[in-house]
Amino acid sequence: MDALTFRTATAADIPALIDLVTSAYRGDASRVGWTTEADILDGQRIDAAGIQGDLDRPRSVILLAEQDGQLQACCHVADENGHGYFGMFSVSPAVQGGGIGKQLMQRAEQHAAEQWQLPTMQMTVIDCRDELIAFYERRGYVRTGIKKPFPYGDERFGIPKRDDLQFEILEKALGAAA
């Protein structure tokens, strides 16, 4: 296998991004990996308009990790109110657990620190996703205790199967070692 390569997404990547993000989080295909949200959410995880909006924003990029010419992982990195924002993190279920996600996360943190000189990276995680939160904690993120409501009724974020969903903000200090 060839080494992992990284690049920023363009509008031409939108269909592949929708397929990747959906495969990592929704439906039976997502159950192959450990990041599935299939037990708590149905419906879509991302749409073309949302991705295009991320591509069009200033100080916002979607990073792609490819291997042998195939898209393996992606994430959205943006400057939001003086903090890096890390979202849309998706790794193909077929390669989860192989280190690709960790490498992409490091690349995203480097981008926020080096390109935009941001002091911290933040993300929102559904607070009942204990295994996922533990993954981020092992990578230096801490729970802030700051909660945000889940956007019930907005199907762009999925169709909830539970009525107790909310987001928690996780944060990591960035620096030379990021």
> Would you report the number of β strands?
9
Q: What is the ordering of alpha helices and beta strands?
A: EHEHEEEHEHEEE
Beta content comes to: 25-35%
Q: What is the count of helical runs?
A: 4
Low-confidence stretches: none
Principal-axis shape equals globular
Largest sheet: 7 strands, mixed
What is the average per-residue confidence, as pLDDT, rounded to a whole number?
Answer: 89
Structure description:
- It is a single chain.
- With 178 residues, the protein is of the alpha+beta class.
- Helices cover 26% and strands 33% of the residues.
- The protein has four helices and nine strands, in the order βαβαβββαβαβββ.
- Strands 1-3-4-5-6-9-7 form a seven-stranded mixed β-sheet, with helices on both faces. The protein has a two-stranded antiparallel ribbon with strand order 2-8.
- Strand 3 (60-67) and strand 4 form a beta hairpin.
- The two termini are 26 Å apart.
Features:
178 residues, two-stranded antiparallel ribbon, 9 strands, 26% helix, globular
Produce the secondary structure layout.
Layout: E1 5-8, H1 14-25, E2 41-42, H2 48-56, E3 60-67, E4 70-80, E5 83-91, H3 100-116, E6 120-126, H4 130-138, E7 142-149, E8 159-160, E9 166-173
Parallel strand pairs: 5-6
Antiparallel strand pairs: 1-3, 2-8, 3-4, 4-5, 6-9, 7-9
Please sum up the structure shown.
With 178 residues, the chain is α+β, with helices and mostly antiparallel strands. Helices cover 26% and strands 33% of the residues.
